[in-house]
Every structure is written in C-alpha cells, then in structure tokens.
Amino acid sequence: MISPSFRAAALCAAVIGVVWPASAQADEQRKAMMDRSQPIECFKDAEAQVWRVQCDAKTKICLYAANEELDSFGHRAKPLERAKRCPMFNMRPFDRTGLEAQGYTFVEGVPDAPYGWTRDNRGRVFQINFDLKRRMYVGGSYAPGSLVDGSSGKSRFSVDFGLLVFEHFGGPRHPNRHRVRLVEGEVFMDPFSAELTLAHYDLSRRFLDPLLRITTFFGQPQRHDLVLNLGVWAEAGSLEVHHTPAANSNLWKFATLQATLDIWQSRRIESFARIRSGVGVEKLYVNGPENRVALTPGHAFEIDWVMDKKGFHNLRAEVLYETPFYNDPAVVAGKRATRMHAKLRYEAILVAINDQPLSLRLDAGSEKRSDVPGVPFDWAFVANAGLRFSLWAPPRSPG
Amino acid sequence: MGAAKITGLAVAVALVAASAPARADDTRCTGKTPAGGRFAICFDPGNRLLLAATTEGYGGGLLLRHIMLFDDEPDLIWKLEHEFLVGRVGGFSDRYDAVLYSGRYLRHARDGHIVLPFAVSKKIFIPFDVGADAQVGRIGGVLGAPTFELGVVRTVALIDISRSEDFKRRLSIGTVVSWDMKVVHDPTNALEDHRIVPFSTGLLNGHFETKSGLTIGDARVEAGKAWSANDGWYSALTAAVTLERVLIAVNDRPVSLFLGGRYENIDEQLYGEVGVRFALFQRQDRRVNLRPIKKPK
Questions:
Q1: Residue B6 belongs to what H/E stretch?
Q2: CA dist., res. B127 & res. B115, Å (int)
Q3: CB A202 within 8 A of CB A234
C-alpha cells in the first residue's frame, strides 16, 4: 500500500526530474546573439560541419555558432528555426588565423533570431514580445466589491473571454488603426451579473494634413498645426444582465455609434487617449411590464497604453457617462436615467506556455446608475484580480 | 437479453465489420475500375457540407479544417477546425439543438515550452501542445416547451498530449469556461436562469480517424462543478461518444453510418443515436486522383 504522502513526494520528484534538467540549462549565462541586421556568413569546417560566423569590425569580435540546434548533450540535433539564411562559402576556406592576426577575438555565440524572439544557448528559439491586441483570451478572477444593488460581494468571482481581438495598422502612408473585437464579455457569480458585446469596431486615424494651420510672425515666422484625429467607434449586440432583489434586468444595447477624437496617439496608434461621443439604441427588459426602449447619448474618455516595447505591461482606463431617454416613462427611472462608470485595468504577462502568454489582470471600477430597477443611485465599487490565457498574440510590430 | 441490447450488439458488429479495411494498402487512396475509371477510397471528413438523418433528428452543418504552416519555423503548425451552423431537429426525438460556430485551435510545436520573462528570459520544456476550443451561439431545447437553452459562449483551454501533426488523433485535457442561459418564450423574453462554468469542470477528449478517413471516433467526458444563478453550485457531468463509418460513396461523396451516445447528469438521461450522414459537398482528399486515365494514342 502506497501512502498519499509518498505519492505526493514521488510526484514532486517526477516533476522536478522532468523540468529541472531543462531549466538548469537556462540558468547558464546567456551567450551573445548575432545581430540579424548585420551580415552573417556560413562556413564548413574540416569535419564538414557548418558554422555561422559574424564579425564586427568595430569591436573586433567574431561570434560563431553551430548552424543547427543542439541537444542537451551539445550535439547538433535539428535545423535552426527562424534563423536568417546565410550564404555558404564552400570554396573559400575560413581564415580564422588571418582574422586573429588582425586583432579579432572569437567568442561562441548563438545564431540570430527575428524581432520578438530570442534563443537559448542551444539555439532554440522562443517568443519574448507579445501583441495582446491580436489574440483570443479566456480568464478568471476574484472580483469582490460593493455592488450596484447595495449588497457586498466578498466571495464574488468572474470569468472573462474574448473570442477575437484583432487590430490592424495601415503603416506610415495610411496611418489608420482598425480595431475589431468579437464576442467579448465578463460574467460575475454570486451575485450574478454579466456583460457581453457581440461585435465591436473602431477606427483611429492620424490625419497627415492639418485641419487648420496658423502661422505666427512674432520674430522668426513659425507654423502651428491644429490636427483633429477623428475616428469612429461602433458596437452591436451588447447585453448587460443584472439580478437584484427587486427584479432581473436585461439591457440590450442593439447598436451604438460614436465619433472619436484622439488627443494623443503613439506612433503606430497602439496607444491613445481619446474622447468619444455618440448615440445608441437600447431596450431594457425587466421581469414585469416595464420593458422600454431608449435612445442613449453617451460620452467617454479613454486611455489605452502599451507601456513597454515588449507588450508586457498594458494599461487601460475609461470614464463613461450615458443618459438613456425612454420612449415610455418608467416608474423607476422616469423619462430619463443616468449611467456613469469608471474603470482602470492593468494587465501584465507573467509566463508564456508554448509562446502563448498567461497574464495577470488587475481591475478597479466604480459605477453609479439609475436605469436598473432595484439599484440605488449610489456609487458601487468592484475590484478584480485574476489570470488570463491568450492564444495567438504574435510579436508586436517593430518600431 | 433485451431487444435493445440485441439491436446494440447488431449495430456494433455491423460497425466492426464495416470498419475492416477495404484494401490491404491504405495509402493508396484512388481505386480503379476494370474499365479504367477512378474513384475515391480516402476522404477528408473535416471539410464537408453535411446532411444528417438520425434518430435524434434531421440536420447538417458546414465543417472546415486547415493547417497553418510557417516557412521560417517548419516545426510549428496551427491546426484549425471550424464548424458553422451545425444543428438538428425532429426525428424520433422532440429535441432540437444548433450551434452557430464552434472551433478548435491547436498549436503544435516540436518543442513545447514555457517562457519565464525574467531579466534574461528562460525557457522550460514541456511535453504537450496548447490550444483552445471555442463555441458561440448554441440553442437547444424541447419542441413546444416554454423555455429553451441559449449557450452564449463556451471556451476550453486545452493541452493536447497526443501532439499529433495532423487531425487524425487527439488526446486533450482542458478546463472549461461557459455561460448558458435559460430563456423563456414569452413577449418579455425573460432570461430565467444563467449557468456558469468558471474553469470548474475538466474536459477529457479523445479523437481518432483512420488514415483513409473512413472511420472516425470521438469520446469526451466533462465533469466538475457548475454554478446556477438560481440554484447555486451543482455537480455537472456530461459524457459523449460517437463513431462514424463511411459505408458507401455516391459520386465520390461519402455516406456514413453514425452511432452516438450521450449522458448528462442534469436531466439524468442517456441518449442513444443511430443514423446516416451524407456529404453534400466534400473537399477531395489530397491523396485522391480522379483525373481520367489517358488512353495511349
């Protein structure tokens, strides 16, 4: 009979045995990597083994590396992945002695890797730069708070999902960024509430020609451009579900269309600060006779900031103000209601599993609304701390 | 032995007999008639427009699958499977169900690994592929009932320990996130209940296809806890097994016998299913050559 403690110890030993040899390899000092933007040459040695060599005339250092990945014993195992092709000089012998006579020092390195990737000492490639604006994700988090219905949700958890997050930048000649999000939402448990958006599209544009340019003639004449980076923001099929002791409410936002004005844009418009304003059509379904349609003007201020070049740290903030106007005055909300919310979200990549990132997500938010029956018109607060697993997330574009 | 058991045994024997290889050499995917005509004996079951008639209903759907390759990383592939508008209604059952879209995305690499983003990134090797299942817009229910089920979204974060380079086999383990609604058919369109699975059920899925694509088997078990907005936490168990065997082909489009079984603990019902599937359109398997044989001049 094997005791549970023995099983646990054996399992730990097995895991350590599987993982440790590979991770120990990673603990060695990392060798210098060849520069992909500089020429690399390949030569065969006397044993017909191919070597990559890159010499730097300024530092007088030549990096050399096997033209194949190595196994754990240091033997050549398989072709390199994602390495730059290098010309083979079969006919010309490699003149190491001559180069050393010129003052070059030979140092063992690792082959080059493309932008967003690196190599370990065995030449194995892996991704170290992630674009979280192109991915599919699913996550879970602990989400305590004082809720809109006045109750406290200390044991509240949530799951969040996005089936497609995709952004495309048109380049410097066509500086437009298209953002598409499909089936994105979050579901909270105990007490229950949910948010879902079936389709989202927005377009940020950097206008190359200014709307207005003013020239001043005080001293040296100077030109001052007034640029209005206008864009569009649209959502279709949004659903909010709220369960309160008074009623269960389902708010369908059929369509929302807004204009955006970017007041700050990063070079590739991945990061921005903007205001947006527009109108939506929605219908609130309540258990009972109070279903009603509303035309909803909305205004928001948003910041979306990728904080580092590798895409590991991402910050998002939003302040939203909406005022639904109902076609039929309701007992609870009257002819007009108010919704306000503010959200701050930080997401940081912790590890990547097979080059697919697992990230930490921290949220803080506050909300005040008068449109949902059973919800007092007071500020509610909620915080989230959880993990997200993303698929795809290719390297961010350089620059 | 009951009649049901005898019928089940007969079907099983028929399937085993039918699944015996028609040719000793399965790699040859093009048959020839004595007159020189060619016909397909291998099929690609993942790319077809399907019609089905089973004891659980009449229906169909569009199935697509493909592999993404990368020139600069030959050992990395993405295996992508998509199903659009798969549904069924009628038959001997009063149930109906349909799914707007479901997909499976598996990233297969020769070297599985975890990257730790320390100051110097570190790489730890792991022996599995990673991926996800996704499903959007499922409806299901009983004809004439006052409510129906609406599956808003379902995703499964997967690891595949079979690490197959193609779609022929899969042994995956995953954790499920899903959100289902119970919707009332009345003018208020009230959402009566919500059922959430917040990574609280585990999924074990095995899948195999023969090289010829003539026989397909799939088995899955999902077990754990789910949460209902009305009733709180409850145990959830679903098990399903399917077996499909191509018996004949009409104009090189396969007609297959389909056998399935499903158990759900929520209604404590065991469902059995027998029927046929017909590929209205099917992408020709790459190994099949149906071009006419040139006659010597």
A1: helix B3-19
A2: 14
A3: yes
Chain A, 301 to 320: residues with Cβ < 8 Å from chain B are 310, 312
C-alpha–C-alpha distance, residues A343 and B156, integer Å: 28
Verify whether the Cβ–Cβ distance A389 to B107 is below 8 Å: no
pTM > 0.95: no
Which of A127, A154, A185 is the last residue in one of the domains? Answer: A127
Distance CA B237, CA A149 (A): 33
Average pLDDT (A256-278) is 96
In chain A, what's the furthest Cα-to-Cα distance? 94
Residue A27 has a pLDDT of 47
CATH number (domain holding residue A342)? 2.40.160
Give A227's pLDDT tier (boundaries 50, 70, 90): confident
Contacts of B189 in chain A (CB under 8 A): 250, 285
* Domain B37-282, CATH class in plain words: mainly beta
How many domains does one find in chain A? Answer: 3
Of B289 and A166, the structure prediction assigns the larger pLDDT to A166
The verdict on A321 and A381 lying in the same domain is: yes
Taking CA atoms, what residue in B is nearest to A247?
A: B190
DSSP class of residue A110 equals: B
Among chain A residues, CA nearest to B184: A287
Structural domain includes residue A398:
no
- Phi, psi values for residue B228, rounded to 5°: -110, 135
**Contact between B139 and B112 (Cβ < 8 Å):** no
Backbone angles phi, psi at B259, to 5 degrees: -135, 130
Residue A143 touches partner B, C-beta closer than 8 Å: no
Q: Residue B2: which pLDDT band, with cuts at 50, 70 and 90?
A: very low
Contact in structure between A144 and A153 (CB atoms under 8 Å): yes
> Would an 8 Å CB–CB cutoff place A287 in contact with chain B?
yes
A44: three-class secondary structure by DSSP: strand
